[in-house]
Amino acid sequence: MSEKLVITIARQYGSGGRDVGHKVAELMGAKCYDQDLIVMAAKRSGISEEALARADEQASSSLLYTLAMGASMIYTNTTPMAVPINDALFIAQSEIIRELSETENCVIVGRCADYILKDHERLVKVFVQGDINDRIKRIMSRAGISESEAKDRIAKKDKKRANYYNYYTGGKWGKPDNYNLIVSTSKIGIDGAAKLICDYARTLGYFE
Q1: Which of 51, 102, 148, 177 is most buried (most C-beta within 10 Å)?
Q2: pLDDT digits (tens, 9 = 90+) for 60-98
Q3: DSSP run (H or E) holding 181
Q4: Residue 122 has what DSSP assignment?
């Protein structure tokens, strides 16, 4: 059996990256994994979905955060161990992501998937970005908040994603060298970005 195609989507907050991921999966005839990974990790670890949702894409580098979240016992493929809940989530999601990459073509949004699957042969690593004004407008519309609130939320969310990625990978979130393709939704929109990503994968011969 040939190795499965996996497209990973890292994204700036407000860029529409999640929507791009779901559209790419639709064009591929595959599934997009995003929040689903929290549900799957909860079943695997025995930790509640609510607790894992609070820890999602949150690095454990902050001592105060780790103390606030607490430690939890997680059962991995090897042995049970007690770790901070955000580390437990990362471990569980990493195992799930690797298993998915072996069993089905799929799209995975966030969760350091590009790093976790760095040795996967049929892998397309994408970073989705957008002009700041477009991102602000998207968040204002989606969340029903003011321009200043949208700016603040974007800055905090992007910093959180960068800290998470940098902590768990030792790399730098958004650095061009980490990705095969960097796509802006500002010029071509969600559908255009998804089509571009699929065309790139086709050019590589990863799917027809």
Answers
A1: 51
A2: 654 344 434 444 444 444 444 456 788 888 989 999 999
A3: strand 181-184
A4: S
pLDDT band at 47 (very low <50, low <70, confident <90, very high): confident
pTM of the model: 0.87
Taking the C-alpha atoms of residue 63 and residue 145, their distance in angstroms, rounded to an integer, is 31
Q: Tokens for 108?
A: 């995975």
User: Rounded CA gap, 4 and 10, in Å?
Assistant: 19
Residue 208: burial class (beta carbons within 10 Å; 0-12, 13-18, 19+): exposed
Where along the chain do its domains lie?
6-41+100-201
- CATH number of the structural domain 6-41+100-201: 3.40.50.300
Amino acid residing at 11: R
Q: What integer best gives the mean pLDDT of the chain?
A: 88
Q: What angle do CA 59, 25, 188 make, to 5 degrees?
A: 90
**16 three-class SS:** coil
Structure tokens at 61: 């580098």
Structure letter (DSSP) for residue 178: G
Residue 74, H or E segment: strand 71-75
* Residue 109 bridge partners (DSSP): 9
Yes or no: say if 173 and 159 are a contact pair by the CB < 8 Å rule. no
Pick from 18, 32, 23, 11: which is nearest to 130 by CA? 11
Q: Using CA of residue 38, residue 39, residue 40, residue 46, what is the dihedral sign?
A: positive
